[in-house]
Amino acid sequence: MATYQEFIQQNEDRDGVRFSWNLWPSSRLEATRLVVPVSCLFTPLKERPDLPPVQYEPVLCSRANCKAVLNPLCQVDFRAKIWACNFCFQRNPFPPSYAGISDVNQPAELMPQFSTIEYIVQRGPPTPLIFLYVVDTCLEEEDLQALRESLQMSLSLLPPNALVGLITFGRMVQVHELSCEGIAKSYVFRGTKELSAKQIQEMLGLMKPAASGPQGRPVAPQDPSATCRFLQPVHKVDMNLTDLLGELQRDPWPVPQGKRPLRSTGIAMSIAVGLLEGTYPNTGARVMLFTGGPPTQGPGMVVGDELKTPIRSWHDITKDNARHLKKATKYYEALASRAAVNGHSIDIYACALDQTGLLEMKCLSNLTGGHISMGDSFNTSLFKQTFQRVFSKDYNGDFRMAFGGTLEVKTSRELKVSGAIGPCVSLNAKGPCVSENELGVGGTTQWKICGLSPSTTLALYFEVVNQHNAPIPQGGRGAIQFVTQYQHSNTQKRIRVTTIARNWADAQSQIQHIESSFDQEASAVIMARLGVFRAESEDGPDVLRWLDRQLIRLFMFHLRRSPFLQVFNNSPDECSYYRHHFVRQDLTQSLIMIQPILYSYSFHGPPEPVLLDSGSILPDRILLMDTFFQLVIYHGETIAQWRKAGYQEQPEYENFKHLLVAPLDDAQEILQNRFPMPRYIDTEHGGSQARFLLSKVNPSQTHNNLYAWGQETGAPILTDDVSLQVFMDHLKKLAVSSAA
Amino acid sequence: MNVNQQTPMASPYGQPQPGYGQPSYATLGGGYPDPYGPYNGPSTAYQPGAPPQGYSPYASFPSKAVAEIPVSDLSSPLDLGSARGPPTSAPPPVSTPQAYSHYTHGDTQNGPPPMNHPMAQPAHRPPVSQPYSQSAMNLSGPQSSYPQQYGAVPPMQQMTNQMSGMQISSGPPTSAGLGYAPRPSSQPLISNTYLAAAPPSYTQAPPPVSAAPSQPPPPSEPAAPQPYYGGHPALQQQQPFPSSAPLQSQPFPLSAPYSGPPPSSQPQTPPVSQQQSFPPGPPSQQPFPNSASLPGPPPVSYADPHPTQQPFPPRGPPPTSQTGSFPPTSSPPAQYLGPQPPSQPGPPPYLSGPPPRGPMPPSSMSQQQANHLPPGSMQQPPQPGMQGGYPPQQNGAFGQPRGPQPGYGGPQYPMQQNYGAAPAPAPPPPAQKRLDPDSIPSPQASELPAVQKSRHRIDPDAIPSPIQVIEDDRANKSSEPFTTGVRGQAPPLVTTTFQVKDQGNASPRFIRCTAYNMPCTADMAKQSQVPLAAVIKPLATLPPDECPPYMVDHGEGGPIRCNRCKAYMCPYMQFIEGGRRFQCGFCSCVTEVPPHYFQHLDHTGKRVDCYDRPELSLGSYEFVATVDYCKNNKLPQPPSFVFFIDVSYNAVKSGMVNIVCQELKTLLDYLPRENPEVDSAVRVGFVTYNKVLHFYNVKSSLAQPQMMVVSDVSDMFLPLLDGFLVNVNDSRMVIESLLDQIPEMFADTRETETVFGPVIQAGLEALKAADCAGKLFVFHSSLPIAEAPGKLKNREDKKLVGTDKEKALFQPQSGFYSNLSKECVAQGCCVDLFLFPNQYIDVATLAVVPVSTGGSVYKYTYFQAETDRERFLNDLRRDVQKPMGFDAVMRVRTSTGIRATDFFGSFFMSNTTDVELAGLDCDKTVTVEFRHDDKLSEETGALMQCAVLYTSCSGQRRLRVHNMAVNCCSQLADLYRNCETDTIISFFSKYAYRSILNTPTKTVRDTLVNQCAQILACYRKNCASPSSAGQLILPECMKLLPVYLNCVLKSDVLLPGADVSLDDRAYLRQLVSCMDVSESHVFFYPRLLPLVKLDGGSLPMAVRNSEERLSKGGVYILETGLHLFLWVGANAQQELLSNIFGTPTFSQIDPNMTNLPDLDNPFSKRLREIIDSFRSQRSRYMKLMVVKQEDKTELIFKHFLCEDKSASGGASYVDFLCHMHKEIRQLLS
Q: Record's GO cellular component, any one (chain A) (predicted)?
């Protein structure tokens, strides 16, 4: 048998699933003792080039509260044409179309290698993708120009039949009508007044005047021309929209000295949501918000327009001094819920040097599966590349995005679902397999994931409910089925079903096995997600303490110092941004986020990973650090001097040139695949940007202990944080004492 | 009813008589009106004694005669005729009409009647156009005519008397009347009184004979009249006469004794004869020679009298009839002479009468006399005549026109003699009747029923005629510039074309007062009930030959003002202490003169630079305002215009949207500017709307306009700033593209609902955002029922009309628009509203904002592109281009003793003194009512200063100042002598139209009638010489009050017909509130012109607004300031039709045409010229409506014939006069 590592890898490749434990403790008590719950990271749309979708409907268990999908784990009686559901043990006849089924003629879903299978189903007319741009016009001209170009460029990336819409906002909110000829027409809303969805639709002229007849006659079908005024197929309005974007003016209202521009982000989003809600409910749609600053008026306002009042900081939040925080957050949460209900996802592209209110607005993306991108300016490659990468395509030429996903989890009897953490909202589907203990978003077996990408990963938590006194027979297996329904970017409706099974193990007798089945990486990420989830809702120190109590592992040191949990040195917006990505990236990326990777390039040998430690910072090395969000190339002191001296230009030092280029090439490789585009930093010893590196490494040498070590290596870190050494010492002491 | 109004004194006579004059004139002859002028002269002559005769000859004469006898009243009674006539006649010579009108005239008339008659008659008759010639021929004949007249006249008078109990001529006239009696016939009403009076007077007449000498003067007048006559369409006069005559005769039937039949024929004839006689007379009359030579001039000087007289001339017609009879009369003249003497005696009484009047109108009298002075010798005689004649004059009031006849008097006298003779036959009865007149009261009661029947019989020609008054005034006052230097001088009527020279008081184009001689005390004011008000048109456009107000810059310190009351430097400031200080004429506070303004005084105490500085020598001027006078202490921005176009289904379908957009493309080049060579500083913006608003970004840098839809109408805001308000030249391409696209974009709209409140709000927000004042042009089509602030519901309920709840329909539905207008005013946002309704649109509510912001409302019901396009476009063009001020505040300061207490017009007031006008254009007037809060002094008079602070169309802040000083009097008679009826009516209408907001309409009508009755009763009681209670005596200058008042009472607003919508009434209500006097005048008493020979530059003389005046064979044009009709008689001559319509057949005339075909013949050209000139005179374009007789559209036309009974139950003039008389009598008893 393969090692657990191979098994884990194989499972991940095939099903996109990584469990914390690959043998499950067979009773609740034992499971509790294991500290790390039975849980998994699940990537619903993991790219499977080798998995051709089947063109028929899945076969469902006929039990009303089960409806599990026929899968390889089911027992099948080929003669009787009956199959037994492995979750509820219901015996179901095959549908007529399976009449030809036999031992040798099995449908795909019964083959073991198809533990993950994708169905293409015909449900209703295909609906085109919808992209609704919501653009802030309170930008500097340079930024606006860059944004215009990016937007115009994006039009060429959209499929011709996709619908596009444009909303611009500043002091007012303008919904642009795209179908009109000759004269550019837009509907304008005041940025301070909250409107209900119905009002918005009325004001946009989307309501059929007669449709509200009291006779309750069926509402007339949406007048296509009415809805199309704002959302038009790209191929029809390409020119129009390009012109429109080209003529996009900066918000014309004067901004007095000492004021921020009035930015009605809240209303703009509410209108975007309302517009889609009224016209294309339950259709895949992407609202893309481009903003260059915090909302300063109306509902959802994050900060007033007085420049003398700075935007809230962690300090203000701690002191409960953030006036608008709760109100705004609540407002955006309500919006996000509405969007989620209708399956629309919301992206936020925020580019500003100061905060833009991501803390308040994050739920827009977090709950709807949208992206968040944060940058300094729209005129940076960080934004441009990120935005472009949103429209990247897969091996089939389809967008790497899916919409309106619903994830349903079915478990065998011994397991119940505690919850999920990821870009999802609960659908409140109660069922027999819902646990009473919630971890993350719980209390349901179904979640809505409005926006999905192949890398979108959820952490799912389970609870073993089997009582200790009712042992599971040896060799018994527990099963979990994930059913993901979604709208593919080519507008097909698809259902992906993943069914996995793990063996039950008796913790007392098989503790060794269980131990060896532990997936450290997965567990780290899973627990980190729990930590982040709690951090969102609880105070920082409490979470740290919880984490310390829960797990003591190497990576935890970095996790504690990561922006996911530690808010020091990070603005609220940055934290929101980091956390947003942390709870959705797959395991590999998540690990990078927790513990950045440091590569060293030197003449001493091939590039090698080195410890993330200040000791690794040496004058004759080039370091490449990847923190997921940043990519730092750090030239050691000597290297930097050489470079300055221009040795690389001299033919005799070509090797030096190669040394210089090597990290750049590696960095480029990372940059090309990473989404969102990381901040790329090229710095050197003593450079101001070196701080990105110095803040990450383990401060084994600080201004306090530098000389105590008496070594010349490494660079001192000016920090009061404890080093790993100290942390570990302390930890050991604690562990011993607590054990005693 | 004794129609004869005895004007208090001569003045009334002179003036009122005119009205009466008509009747009397009739008798007198068409030429009379003019003659009146002369007559006036004659009257003076009469005064000498001749006057009486003159009067007697004319209906008025008799009345005058009667008047004489009766009292001065007689003269006054006739106000119209006798009073005026006499006075005028007397004055005429002098030149000052007033004088004429004054007692002297009356007196002269009365007393002089005989005298006058001879005198005046000759004069008049000559004037009488056709008749005159005849009469002239008849010279001797005229006399004969007189007799006829008498015969005829009596009936007339009697009729009238009996009819309403109204004795046109006062009872007094009866005395003279006897003698006059005959005349009465000719001058129906007058005649009555006259008849009664005449006889006596006749007896007295003899004395008049003495007056006869005075007659000479008349001759001169006659001469004058003659020219007039020539000028005047004799026909017209004649026509009226005949009709009037019969009418009179009818009413008189009661007076039957008078011999109805004779009256008709006689009356007419008499005048003629008189006229005829006049011609001869004039020559004979020495005094007249002057006048004769002056024929033209005299009228002028006579102006007052003339007006009255003028009508008479028209009566030329009578002459025609008379002619026949005249010959005899001519002989009679001689007889008259004989009779005259007797009549003269009458005159003497008149003379005596005059004296009494003297007290009353002493001043006037004196003036008159002064005027008469030239005739000097004449005057004296007249006076005697006056005394005796006063009563007659009063009687004459009606006949007074005859008063003017005084001049005629000369000839008339002879006539009178004739009368005597004629009287003999007819007289007897008349005499009785006249006698009765005094006692008439009793008859009245019994008569009442009869009255009704008989009413018809009152000769419309015998009652005061507006036409006559207008013509007289025009004849007398249009030739010389009106100088404003003399305090308390009443200006010419609004219907008269005249030039103004500013010599220290504001031109009447800026300010017109109801009274130019204010009572000194509140008690007097209360007693008289004459409203004290000024109609102010601060930015009135002046004719090209008058200089607009000069601009004065007092430097950084701003205009120099009184320290206490803050009045601006003006001619009423008295410099003292060598020029170092000045004393305020308003509050008497002494203020230091700033060093930079110091100037030495000359020996008279005037500043040496007095005539170099407009603010020290003129009545109107402008100051440059400093930053202290600006909002927020910031110099203003140039204003902006924002156009709001309704693009709902109805608006598009009617073609309005298309028309507006097309027009705006060119119209934008004509935005108001001060320097024609510089581009207008006014910026423009565009919005279309249905139930949402579409703003347009027309920034010059755009290739295409951008539309921004605001559908959140519940909370209006401006969606864009930059690019909304733009300079036309900069953004021309974009704007044109926009205006081209709007009609296309909405061509297929199916949206029927509209909003309105948010539209105004949007404009307000736009101006706020641009920090400027401006004007919104809103083109709106339907009741705003879409869900939005200011949403309205259809509340038209015909059942409420006439009930106490009716007033609610004139009030806005909610307070929303009132509040909105407050905000608009604060921002200087003026709203002009163009309505295109197809059904109820609730003008009462929609107009709230325009009315409160100084804007205008235009309504085009059932707008159709083809027919209404021109009217709408002309209105729009004018509205866009007209000079106006923005963000204005007006304040009226007055000298201690009176105070501006009430204001009427389109504006908003947040306190009790400041009139705030977001916009003030050149057509808007503000009417101010004054009340006493202390005593005024006769020496200083009453001063008022109207200061308007505004922003010009180029963004300059200015102060326009108008100063006005009027006299003060301690005698009621002086008050009644210096009133202006047109202004009073204008005030009353505005007052009443506002009252209906809070008071049931019926109550408002009653109040109006009551107040007028009180005014007239007060006059009768305090100013008129005693006379029979049965006699209606009107002050000369108010003799048209009843007819005009009746028009107000019958107006659609106060007395709606079934077909008048609530919207129409609300629309008219607000229109009238800011009309100036000339507009309100023609609105209430439309101008009706017969289209006869249209050669030459002058207009044909108007005819009275009565169906009886329309000839089946004629074509008439009628204008009201809002409507323009061309009425085509069924029997109109083919040639006429060909000339006008290009078709000879009546049936082929297209009744739907709105413009006459462009035919190449002089008649057509001239007619179109006339129509164009009418249109250019009015602030709103009048669509021409062709009305064919007996076509169904004729009903609409008839609605404007305001002397007739109206379909909605409004009284005819005659009926109303009777009613009025009754009211007065009730008050007196």
A: cytosol
Quick one: fold of A521-590? Four Helix Bundle (Hemerythrin (Met), subunit A) (1.20.120)
Residue of A nearest to B769 (CA): A253
Identify which of A180, A190, A195 has the shortest CB distance to residue B717.
A190
Q: Report whether B104 contacts B368 (CB < 8 A).
A: yes
Q: How many angstroms away from the CA of A190 is the closest CA of chain B?
A: 7
Name residue B559's amino acid.
P
- Taking the CA atoms of residue B116, residue B80, residue B352 and residue B171 in that order, the dihedral angle to the nearest 10 degrees is 110
Q: Do A184 and B706 touch (CB under 8 A)?
A: yes
Q: Do A188 and B708 make contact, defined as CB atoms within 8 angstroms?
A: yes
Whole-angstrom Cα distance, residue B843 to residue A613? 84
Nearest chain B residue (CA) to A187? B709
Question: Whole-angstrom Cα distance, residue B163 to residue A79?
Answer: 126
The predicted pLDDT at position B613 comes to 92
Is CATH 3.40.50.410 the right assignment for the domain spanning A130-205+228-292+342-390?
A: yes
Could you give the C-alpha distances from A224 to A164, A231, A232, A339, B443, in angstroms and in order? 15, 10, 10, 22, 86
ipTM comes to: 0.83
Contact B692 A182 (CB under 8 A): no
CATH number of this structure's domain A26-123+397-518: 2.60.40.1670
pLDDT 10s digits, A263-320: 999 999 999 999 998 888 888 899 999 999 999 999 999 999 899 999 998 888 888 8
- Across the interface, do B715 and A193 touch by the CB < 8 Å criterion? yes
* Residue A541 pLDDT class (50, 70, 90 cuts): low
pLDDT bin (cut points 50, 70, 90) of residue A107 is confident
| Per-residue pLDDT at A208 | 58
Distance from CA of B754 to the nearest CA of A (A): 14
Select the residue of B707, B712, B721 nearest A183 (Cβ to Cβ).
B707
Q: Which has the closest alpha carbon to A422: A436, A438, A441?
A: A441
Residue whose C-alpha is closest to residue B413's, from B221, B277, B307, B268: B277
Q: Does A198 touch chain B (CB under 8 A)?
A: no
B685 touches chain A (CB under 8 A): no
Q: B607 burial class (0-12, 13-18, 19+ CB within 10 angstroms)?
A: buried
Q: Does B771 touch chain A (CB under 8 A)?
A: no
Alpha-carbon span B760 to B1047, nearest angstrom: 36
Annotated domain spans of chain A: 26-123+397-518, 130-205+228-292+342-390, 521-590, 596-732
What pTM was computed for the model? 0.74
When CB atoms are compared, the residue of A184, A190, A252 closest to B721 is: A252
State which of A96-110, A322-336, A517-531, B301-315 shows the largest mean pLDDT.
A322-336
pLDDT digits over B167-226, tens only?
A: 443 333 333 333 333 343 333 333 333 333 333 333 333 333 333 333 333 333 333 333
Are B187 and B247 contacting, i.e. CB atoms less than 8 angstroms apart?
no
For residue B416, pLDDT beyond 80:
no
Q: What is the pLDDT of residue A703?
A: 64
DSSP lists the bridge partners of residue B1187 as B1127
Confidence bin at B916 (pLDDT 50/70/90): very high
Is the Cβ of B704 closer than 8 Å to some Cβ of chain A? yes
- Evaluate whether the domain defined by A596-732 bears CATH number 3.30.565.10: no
Chain B residue with minimum CA distance to A193: B715
Which residues of chain B neighbour A184 with C-beta distances below 8 Å? Answer: 704-707
Interface test with A, best of B717, B734, B746, B751 (most A CBs within 10 A): B717
Tokens describing residue A294? 């915090």
Determine the Cα–Cα distance for residues B833 and B819; give it in Å rounded to an integer.
Answer: 18
